[in-house]
What does this fold into?
Amino acid sequence: MWFRIHIQYLLFVTLFCVSCSRPVAENDPIPDPEPDTGRGFSQAWTDFIDGSADNVLLDFSYAGYDHGESEPPDIYGIPGYRVYNVNDYGAIPDDGRSDRQAFLDAVDDALGRKGWTVGGTYSTQSVEKANAIIYFPPGEYILYDKESDALDSDGLPDPVNGKSYTMEIRAGHFIIAGAGMDRTTVIMSDPYEPFSGSPTDYAPALLSLKHWTGLNEPLCDIVGDSPKGSHTVEVSSAAGLYEGMRVSLNVENNDPSVIAEELYPYSAEPEWTQITDEGVTVEDLHCIESVNGNIVRFKEPLMHAVDRKWGWHLYKFSCYEKVGIEDITFKGNASPEFIHGQWAGNSAYTMIAMMRIADGWVRRCRFNSVSSAVSVTSCANVSVYDITIDGNKGHHAVYASRSSRTFIGKVSDMSSYAGIGNYGQHHSCGVAKPSIGTVIWRCNWGTGTNFEAHATQPRATLFDCCTGGFQLYHAGGDTSQLPNHLDDLTLWNFNATGASVTDNLLWWDPDGAWTVLPPTIAGFHGTDVVFSPGQVKLDESHGYPVCPQSLYEAQLERRLGYLPPWLDRLH
It folds into this structure.
C-alpha cells in the first residue's frame, strides 16, 4: 500500500508536507514529523484518502460552526442587529453590587417582553430571531450573589421560589459579548443551590441558552441500509422534508442482538442497566442538503451505520440558531479543596449551558474557579474555542453531551488543586451521552486529569493534537451508564504528560478504570504508555507523532481545497 503512489496521493503529500513543516509555536506540543525515519505520513491517513478497505478513520471535518467552513461573524458588523448595553439599564461596573436585574432588563428589552420566574428559573419569552447583542463594557459585573432574591410577577420578593437561580434565555440570533476576556468580567460570587436541596444533586448554570418547544416531532421511518460515511438515507416518506431542514436521525433498541452487535467484541455487564434496559441509543443531528424521491441527502456523513432492521427514525430537530457568547471572563468562587460527588464541587459554580442550539459558539472566554465552564447539550455544530480555565479546580471543563459535531478547540485547562498548579478540572474536555462526531482540537490540560468520556453511549470522538495528563478514573460515568465510550474513539498525535498506568493499559476493563471499545490511535507520544495490543483497533507510530499533524485540519483542507482562515489563525 505504501508504494501505491498516484497523482492524488502526491498532491496531498505535497500539501501536508508544507502543513507539517509549519514552524512550531512555543506552546505547540507536537514536534515536526520525521519522514526520513519512516515515521512520517500516517498509513491510516493514506488509507483514508485512498478509500482503502483497510481505512479505520471517519471524516470529522464537519464539526463546528458552519461545519468548520467559516467562523461566527464579528459582532461589530452584523447587519440588522441591535446592541443592548447593560450600562444603559443600570449596571454599574466595579461597584461591588449586583448587576443581575440590569442584565435581565436588557434581555427583556431585546426580546420584547418581560420574562418570568418559575421554580427558581428566570425564563424569557421565546424568540426565533432576536437579532440582539447584549453588551458588557469593560469592568466587573456581578450576575449572582446571595442577595439576588427571586421576584414574582409584580417585582416583589418571592418566598416560594427563594433564590433566583439560572437565567434561561430562549432566543436565536442572540449574542452576549464583552470587551475582551482581559477587560470584562462577569462574577458569580455565591453558589447556586442544588435543584432538590440534596448535597449530591446538581445545581443549574448561571446562564442557560435553551430551546424547549417542538421536541421529538416524528417525520418518517428509515427503510434502507446506509454505511458509515454515507450522506444518504432512504425514508418511508419524504413529505414535509426540505433542503436546509434540521433533523435528528435516531434509534433506540434494547433487543439483545442489537446490543451485542453494538458492543462487539465485548458484551454488557449485568449492572449496566442504561444500555440493557433502554437499549442502543443513537441521536445524530443533520441538515438536509437535498431530497430526491425518498432518498434524503445530508450535508454531513453518517457517523454510525444505519441498519433498517434496528428501527431507525427521522425526527424534526427544533432549535435556535446563531447563539453565541464571547470576550468575557467568568469568575466563580470554587473552593480550593474540590470534593467529587458533592454539589459544592460538582456544580455550585456552573457557568454556561447550551441546549438545542445549532451553529452556536463560545469563544475568547476565561473561566476562573468554576465548577463547569461550558456544556453543550443536544446541540448541532457548536464551536467552543480559545478558552482558558484557571483558578481553583472544579468538576468539568468543556464537554459535549448528546450533541452532534461539536468543535472544542484551543482550551487550556490549567486549574489548581490543593495548591498544586496546572492540575486541571476533574474531567477535562470531552464527551457524554449519545454525542457523536465531536472534535477536541489542540487542547491542553494539567497533569492531574484526563479527557472526559462520561458514558451513556458517546461515539466517534476525535482527540486531535491534544496534550495533557492520561490519568485513569477521570473519564467519568456511573456504573449503570457504562460503557464510557463506544466505537470510533480516535486519538491523533496525543501527547501524554503523565499517566497513572503505563504498562499494558486496558481500554476495556469492566472491573477497572473504564470501558472503551477498541480505539484508533496514531502518533501517541510523550509519557510511554503501552496499550494492551488486543484492545486497540490501530496503534500506529507509537511514541512518535505522525503526519498530517492535525487530522481535523487535514480532512477539512482536503474537503474544501483550502484551510479556512479562522482555523489557521488559531494555531
